[in-house]
Structure formats: C-alpha cells, structure tokens
Design goal:
Length: 391
C-alpha cells in the first residue's frame, strides 16, 4: 500500500477532480469506489491501495505517479502485461481475428499511446498494449490501405517497445523492433524507415555493440531523404543525434562530434517539436551534447557541466527526454564529486517523469553511489534509494 507524502495525496486528488469539474460522486462512480472511500481519501483519513490509486488515476485521466510520485505499483502492472504482449506479437504475420476498433478509433488509440510514451506513462501503455497491438495487426492484414495501416502498426509497436525496453524485457523489445522493421517498408515512406532505424539503436545499446550501431545509423543517414524541409531535417538530425551518443559510448569522440555538429546544423532552422514520434530541435541537440559528454566518460564531464550551467530543458520537451537530461547530469555530477547537486538532479528527474526515472539504470546506479558516499540528508536519500530500487 502506498505511503502518503505529507498528507498531500488527498489534496492532489481533490484538486485534479475539481479541475475536471467532477463531483466526488462522479469520481467514485468512474473509479468503482464508494463515495465514503473517495471522501476519506481526499480528506487524508484513508490510504488508498495500489489498485484504488490506479483506479482513481484512470478516472482522472492521469498516471498514478502524477498523484503520488513514489508510487511503484506500475512496475507490477507492466510485468503482468508482458506475457500478453508477447502472445500478440507471436503471430504478427498471420491474420487471426478482426480488429475490435474501427479505423477512426484505432487512430485515436494509437495517438494516445504515442502521447503516453512521450510523457513516460508506461503503465497506461501497458494496460492497453496487447489489445492495441492485436488491433493494429488485424487492421493491417484486413485493409487495402497498407501504407497507412503500416504507419499505425509502427507507431503502436514503438509505444509498446518503450514499455518492454524500459522495464528490462530486452528480448521482447528486440522482437517489437523487428516488427517495426517488417512493417516500415509497407509505408513506402523513407522517413518512417529512418524513425525505425533510430529506435533500432536500442538493440546495439543492449548488446554494447556500439561500433556496429554507429555504422548502422550512418547507413540509415545515407538512406534518408535529403533535408529539404522540417520533417526531412528532423529525420536526419535525429539519426545524427543518436549516432553521436553511440559513438561516444564506443569511445570515439571525433565521430561523436562530427555527428553532433551535423545535428546542430540541421536543428538551426528547425522548430523544437516531435516529428514522427521523435523530438528534434535545438533543445534536443543540446541534451544530446550532454549525453555525448557523459557517454565519453569522466574526462569529459567539464563539457557536461558547461551545457548544464548555460541551459536547462524547457517544459516544451517530452517528459521522457527532460528527465533523461537530469539523470545523465546527475551521473556527471557524481563523477565530479558534486554529490548534493547529483541528488537534486535526480529529484528533478523524478518530479518530471517518475516511471522513467525509477526504471533508468543510471538513476539506480547513481543513487547507489550516493548512498555509499553521501553523509548529509541521509534519511531523504535513503527513501529515494528504496523507491528507485538502489537498495
């Protein structure tokens, strides 16, 4: 059962309910709880169980971590959903049953899943993942418009992959990426193929095949359309950002800088926004500058500090990308002996995207290091370490 944070959980629930112009009776009905239970929770007289908190969050249209940042029930829900996702994926090339959604409903559901991925709301994706994947596959096999159906299938698989990859189901993640690679040619859109090549880098990160990953991304850049507008510039720029990071992990600073410079050039005339599910623009490039510095190791931390000293990501960026910036900065701050700053950065990351922070291995490793060396604010740090799974 979740622990209340300073008695503020009930107040947050009440505030969100009122913002949505819902009565307590309405929230009770939508969350399948009794009215006295809702009243007691909002007044701070009763602790909701994990399932009750998830039901309330669903009724309010938010992730549970928006109500309680230390909530960890999502992990259980995600892992429970993985077998069904695997089953849906097993016969991806075999038509089995018709879709339960019509085309308009499927478009809306896929759009929701993409937005949840960008907001790092993995629990919400997991809840719908298997059914959505079933419908996207069924729609692809049944329709005559393979191009649009394939786009929906790629977007669906990418959203589901975010759950599998972040929660350690790396084999399932690799299978979802292969599904994307299978579907992408049916879109007849080289920009979709470029976006799939961007996601495929996860496989190289997992295998620590950094040199191979760099070559694969460079081949994807060569295959991508020339940068003639914002969409094509973003597709190529995103590949260069990713190539810079994986080259950094390969210990190749020259190649990393070459790709960063090209990403920077492509971002100059590009507005920061999300293109085909990937954020790109000047802010995203700056975040990758820090990522490259951290990837290259401790001797490059001054560059990471320079980026962070001059700038911090705005709220215009997706939550997952913003939280990643603070997690990587915390890693650099530990290397530089800035332990208090590192803990503050981790707390910022958690406030932005709790699920992403909790499942990020570097957040866990950095917290474990802080637990060993830090001596101030020990109680708060220990609570954070328990939450993130570092102890």
């Amino acid at each position: 059962m979740p622990v209340l944070e300073d008695g503020g959980l009930g107040k947050r629930i009440a505030a969100l309910r009122k913002a949505r112009r819902m009565y307590q009776s309405h929230l009770a009905r939508e969350s399948y709880l009794s009215l006295p239970t809702i009243k007691a929770i909002e007044q701070g007289k009763r602790q909701p169980s994990d399932s009750a908190l998830e039901s309330i969050a669903t009724a309010l249209g938010v992730d549970p971590t928006r109500l309680l940042s230390t909530f960890t029930g999502t992990e259980t829900r995600v892992h429970a959903a993985l077998p069904a996702i695997s089953t849906s994926l097993a016969a991806y090339d075999v038509p089995i049953s018709p879709a339960s959604r019509n085309t308009a409903e499927l478009h809306a559901a896929v759009s929701d899943a993409v937005n949840w991925r960008l907001a790092a709301q993995y629990g919400r994706i997991a809840h719908h993942a298997a059914d959505l994947l079933d419908d996207a596959l069924a729609h692809f096999h049944a329709t005559t418009d393979k191009r649009e159906a394939a786009r929906l299938l790629v977007a669906t698989a990418r959203s589901v992959d975010a759950v599998a990859y972040k929660y350690g189901a790396r084999d399932l993640s690799a299978r979802l990426i292969e599904l994307m690679r299978w579907a992408a040619p049916h879109t007849e859109d080289l920009l979709v193929s470029a976006s799939v090549a961007y996601v495929r880098t996860e496989v190289f990160f997992t295998a620590r095949a950094h040199t191979a990953g760099t070559h694969a991304l460079e081949a994807a850049v060569d295959a991508a359309p020339a940068a003639t507008d914002a969409n094509t510039a973003a597709a190529r720029g995103a590949l260069h950002m990713r190539a810079a990071v994986i080259a950094g992990r390969a210990g190749d600073p020259d190649t990393a800088e070459t790709h960063l410079a090209e990403a920077r050039r492509l971002s100059d005339g590009t507005r920061e926004t999300t293109y085909l599910g990937t954020a790109f623009g000047p802010e995203s490039v700056r975040i990758h500058e820090l990522s490259v510095a951290v990837s290259l190791g401790q001797e490059h931390i001054d560059r990471a500090f320079t980026v962070a000293r001059e700038w911090a990501p705005s709220t215009d960026l997706p939550a997952e990308r913003r939280s990643g910036f603070w997690i990587e900065l915390a890693r650099a701050q530990v290397w530089g002996g800035r332990f208090d700053d590192a803990f503050e950065s981790l707390k910022v990351a958690r406030s932005i995207a709790p699920q992403h922070t909790r499942e990020h291995p570097w957040a866990r490793d950095t917290t474990a290091t802080l637990e060993r060396v830090k001596r101030t604010d020990e109680e708060s740090l220990h609570h954070f370490a328990v939450w993130v799974g570092a102890v």
